[in-house]
Amino acid sequence: MHAWPASEVPALPGQGRDLRIHDTATGGLVTLDPGPVARIYVCGITPYDATHMGHAATYNAFDLVQRVWLDTKRQVHYVQNVTDVDDPLLERAERDGVDWTALAEKETALFREDMTALRMLPPRHYIGAVEAIPGIVPLVERLRDAGAAYELEGDIYFSVESDPHFGGVSHLDAAAMRLLSAERGGDPDRPGKKNPLDPMLWMAAREGEPSWDGGSLGRGRPGWHIECVAIALDHLGMGFDVQGGGSDLAFPHHEMGASHAQALTGEFPMAKAYVHAGMVGLDGEKMSKSKGNLVFVSQLRREGVDPAAIRLTLLAHHYRSDWEWTDQVLQDALARLDRWRAAVSRPDGPSAEALVEEIREALANDLDSPAALDAVDRWAALQQESGGTDIGAPGVVSRAVDALLGVAL
Ligand code: 5CA
Ligand code: ZN
User: Fold this and answer.
1) Which CATH number is 20-286 given?
2) Strand pairing of 220-222 and 240-246?
């Protein structure tokens, strides 16, 4: 499917820095050394409701990853999926009496608008689960033929025991895995499974639900984890640089994906870094479509909130921390945006050279966007208090904030 339009990324003077980022699999910071083309896969939305601030925060983190890479003059090969067929989507369509394809299309269209407004760079390949089915079927057949998958009443399950590295992404114990599996789309209590954690690769057609030709698998639809593996391997290949998503995807989604890929290719890991963003909450609970405690990007935009301020709200929190959406965090961002715009509207000001380096240094250090904002705040305060004579400095600041933080001043 098509993605959304790219906003321009201005080139900056000087040299960008290599990214050091937290990898869930090793539990520490890794310095990534992508070749001339950095490869990143970011798990996309399940389009049954509008984009909320939690989604936006997660996509903001991975947008920063790309901006750091672009600043090192690398190209970025970015792939994102849309889980446009899955239980939650079918359930919501049923509840609301609407066609599930129409619901998915409508919410994906709104997501594109929100991403464009927030100046998130678009993926080069934006792939829906449904369009990926012809590539998924042969992978499931291969897993079954290799003995890494088995059939249960027509459904095909992946056997986690086939992967010697299973557990190597999340490092959770069996009890924690079982709990999360039940919460996040798994079926650990289904009788007849070899291991309660085994995830479904292919679900045989159910009465009243959509299904597709699965070759030797029979009619059905794909499981969630194999969807992302098929798309990632097809468009990026093994050993790409980053797989990203919110922290709720570390287990089971990214764990199972890594296992599927290992069973398919004999290689480990699928991604050099598994990067997870913290959860945004509202009123003391994780913001989630199923709970309904949501602040939508599109609703804020409808109310006339400048998307640049929404983005500054996201940037004010470190991507790995869990944080709460409040009115105050938005008010703070609006005030900051005003200060910054006033500071760059003059033709001259304090030198911008050190500031550009500070922003680069902050972002290269595990995407420390709050430190980057502090640095811009200090430059803006200096401009406000004593100004400066460096002609063009405000322009450099404006372009750096645009290129590295995705905020248009
Ligand atoms: N389609 C799958 C991924 S393949 C999915 O998880 N879709 S989603 O719509 O539920 O979430 C999209 C992205 O937003 C995921 O990376 C998820 O981890 C992230 N996300 C969801 N809720 C929050 C939240 N409250 N805070 C931060 N990120 C969130
Ligand atoms: Zn995914």
Assistant:
1) 3.40.50.620
2) unpaired
> What does pTM read for this prediction?
0.97
pLDDT in tens, 194-208: 999 999 999 999 999
- 364, containing H or E segment: helix 353-364
Domain extents in the chain: 20-286, 297-405
Instruction: Give how far Cα 293 sits from Cα of 54, 180, 280, Å.
Output: 11, 21, 11
Residue 279 Cα to ligand 1 midpoint, Å, equals 9
Mean pLDDT score, 77-94: 96
CA–CA distance, 221 with 85 (Å, rounded to integer): 8
Q: How far apart are CA 348 and CA 360, in angstroms?
A: 22
Cβ-in-10-Å burial (0-12, 13-18, 19+) of 75 comes to middle
> Which residue has a Cα nearest atom 28 of ligand 1?
54
Q: What's the 293 CA to ligand 1 centre distance in angstroms?
A: 14
CA of 276 to the centre of ligand 1 (A): 10
CATH (residue range 297-405)? 1.20.120.640
